[in-house]
DNA sequence: TATAAGATTTATACTAAATCTAAATATAAA
DNA sequence: TTTATATTTAGATTTAGTATAAATCTTATA
């Protein structure tokens, strides 16, 4: 059961994440809402992000920056961050199974998932060579 | 040149990380120093960890927890976290080159490095089955 | 409809991790 | 020694996020 209760605030927060392809932070979600004239309490945005993550409509990303980012794409995937402009793109290629098997053997862990962050320079930044 | 200036404080902090195989946080370093009767200012521990990281004697790890962890092993490697007991172990098997190549092709990035955190259950926890 | 129960939102206080500031110390150079 | 430079320190500040409790909204029930 456990029907998802999408209040106006939660819907607005969800849409703010969905229409920002760049994996926004809570602060960026706030900003976008404010731009639209839809301002909610700080805590409401956090509560909503947490709720939406709990019910599986969003994923929280910890990419090694100070603030968490949120992703409307909830299927399992990784990310790549441009060291120059900071943009975050999708990496849909999954962690190779043979690698996971090798890691399990070497560490004596049973691996349930993996989070990968690639770092590099995006196509755009590569062109606008410094 | 740029000789490394290992003050007493920095040396103590470095050793605290080296003799803790578990990738300690700044707070855990503080704690260990206090146990040894060597207590420094909060800021000194942070300054030292930053200095030691900058000169390459330590690596800072962001494993998705609130606090950074520090690693005396500075060669390139990954980590695996036990979901049950929280221990952090080394993953020495490097990211497969073919995978990196595939990701570069798919994303149009030039990848310079990758950070991988595996999650699972360690051998010890697997035995003490819940 | 009226009323109560439950859920959500809000403002505010609070916490944890880390950084900043500026004075006090220590170390090195002249 | 005197001066300059680097480091340490205590405490204030910042940032991201959580906790609390009152206010509001929504739903269920008499
Ligand atoms: Mn994504
Ligand atoms: Mn390590
Ligand atoms: Zn870029
Ligand atoms: Zn374990």
UniProtKB/TrEMBL annotation, chains A, B:
Keyword flag Transcription:
yes
Q: What is this protein called?
A: Fur family transcriptional regulator
Family (UniProt): Belongs to the Fur family.
Instruction: Kindly state which keywords UniProt assigns to this record, in alphabetical order.
Output: DNA-binding, Metal-binding, Repressor, Transcription, Transcription regulation, Zinc
User: PANTHER family, per this entry?
Assistant: FERRIC UPTAKE REGULATION PROTEIN, ZINC UPTAKE REGULATION PROTEIN
Q: Name one GO biological process term.
A: negative regulation of DNA-templated transcription
Co-factor requirement: Zn(2+)
Q: Where does Zn(2+) bind?
A: 82, 85, 122, 125
What are the recorded GO MF terms, alphabetically? Answer: DNA-binding transcription factor activity; transcription cis-regulatory region binding; zinc ion binding
Q: Which organism is it from?
A: Paenibacillus naphthalenovorans
Does Transcription regulation appear among the keywords? yes
Q: Which CDD domains match?
A: Fur_like
Cofactor: binding comment:
Binds 1 zinc ion per subunit.
């Amino acid at each position: 059961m456990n029907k998802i209760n999408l209040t106006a605030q939660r819907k607005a927060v969800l849409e703010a994440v969905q229409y920002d392809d760049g994996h926004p932070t809570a602060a960026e979600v706030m900003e976008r809402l404010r731009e639209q004239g839809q301002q909610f309490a700080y805590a409401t945005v956090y509560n909503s992000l947490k709720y939406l993550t709990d019910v599986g409509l969003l994923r929280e990303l910890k990419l090694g920056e100070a603030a968490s980012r949120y992703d409307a794409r909830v299927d399992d995937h990784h990310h790549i961050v441009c060291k120059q402009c900071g943009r975050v793109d999708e990496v849909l290629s999954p962690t190779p199974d043979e690698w996971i098997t090798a890691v399990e053997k070497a560490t004596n862990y049973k691996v349930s998932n993996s989070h990968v962050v690639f770092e590099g320079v995006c196509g755009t930044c590569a062109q606008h060579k410094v």
